[in-house]
Amino acid sequence: MLTDQPVAPHGLRVRRLGIETGGEAIVFMHADCPVARSEGFATRTRVEVHAGGRRALATLFFTTNGLLDPDEVGLPNALWRQLHAGDGDVIEVRHPQPLASMSDVRAKIYGHRLEQDRLARIVADIATGRYSDVELAAFVTAFAGQPLDVRETAALTRAMLEAGDRLDWPDELVLDKHCVGGLPANRTTPLIVAIVTAAGFTMPKTSSRAITSPAGTADAMEVMAPVNLDLAAMRRVVEREGGCVVWGGNVRLSPADDILIGVERALDVDSEVQLVASILSKKLAAGATHVLLDLPVGATAKVRSPAEAARLSAHLVAVAAEFHLSVTPVLTDGTQPVGSGIGPALEAHDVLAVLRRAPDAPADLRERSIDLSGRILDLAGGPPGRGRAQASAILDDGRALDKFMAICEAQGGFSEPSTAPLRYTISAPRSARVAAFDNRTLARVAKLAGAPRSKSAGISLHVKLGATVARGEPIFTVHAESRGELDYALAFAAANPDAIRLASL
């Protein structure tokens, strides 16, 4: 790999390493690299990479096994694409300018309230990729254990809103719905969008991928239609069909939030301040005027009690009022999963079963979708209480199915969800009554089975709360795409038999 060709001062030749880092910006140098020595670089140093007028921040690691020569820098796939680099190009690696906003993060860690200008500085640096994963983790955890404050949350919301793009619509009413999460398989959003848009209203729905769950709305929708639409494509779909269900991360409506979600996923942390700012910044950026907020309440849901739901609702409503956004909270049952499938494809199967009015469609998913859709239609100004009947009629006469298929086609085409090649059913060890569901443990089983990365992986439930089962009757089935993932999930399920707790008859 050595060459006699001259290299510019402080310049290094590029080598593509073909490493996938999940989007994380990393560069590699030889341990004896003269640039690293002269600059005083160490492992995990933050560096600034310059290539052809483009630049990127990255974290540095060293090699010692001959993978790179001392005059080379190795780029993983994400950074290679970002810099539009070519093998042999000469680039420069330097110390970046000091990250001044980290002083603001440290202030937050020590319990100080942050004003608009300080939060705007932090969010701008996050949105432009200046924070390392360690620094992002510090920001996420700084808010995790601190009490809610309307003024500070509004400032964070505004900072996240201003860091991205915004949509505006000619309609006086632009409707939206959001669920705070924590309840597996609660896949009402595609159904609600289909019902509400079939009623003639505008609902441009941006959704998240999974944070701590086996599937986010975008993950489930993706097995039926493309969701990685850009802003222009999203606008075309909404103008054509009245609504959409797309991944918010690709339309840059709140880009800092999408970065933070990745860190929250890794830490399994969901701070309430950031939850509020995340929800509201994306709703405001999408141009919503009225939002229905679904808060599932249950002992193993994200929101554990009615008192906690009331506190979070009040905070959301108060912060939304700062932006003249109407938010209507609704407390729902969070004691057990909604529907029968947990995992992207399994949840998609449930959605289609409800839309197609299949005999085995999950009744709880259908009823919750009708109820929430009805409440949204009531927000649109119809006769109070009439929305539910309207929503039910739209679903029952096939208009919702037709509209959903039209939205899928507008987003790039409909696909039937796949099924997993490997399955194993857990049966009742004795005759008993289903006494409780541990939502978090069930979600863990589904994730160990491969969800959401393996689209067809997850759990299908065969029982509901209060049901009686005989010895040997199925309780749930684990779906996986590989034997290793199936074994991991089954081992965890065996170690946690109270994921679905059975009580004696």
Automatic annotation (TrEMBL):
Catalysed reaction equations from the record: thymidine + phosphate = 2-deoxy-alpha-D-ribose 1-phosphate + thymine
| Any single biological process term in GO | pyrimidine nucleobase metabolic process
Q: PROSITE patterns, alphabetically? A: THYMID_PHOSPHORYLASE
Instruction: Fetch the InterPro entries from UniProt.
Output: Glycosyl_Trfase_fam3, Glycosyl_Trfase_fam3_N_dom, Glycosyl_Trfase_fam3_N_dom_sf, Nuc_phospho_transferase, PYNP-like_C_sf, PYNP_C, Pyrmidine_PPase_CS, Thym_Pase_Put
Gene Ontology CC annotations of this record: cytosol
Listed A to Z, the keywords are: Glycosyltransferase, Transferase
- In Swiss-Prot or TrEMBL terms, this protein is called Putative thymidine phosphorylase
Source species of the chain:
Novosphingobium marinum
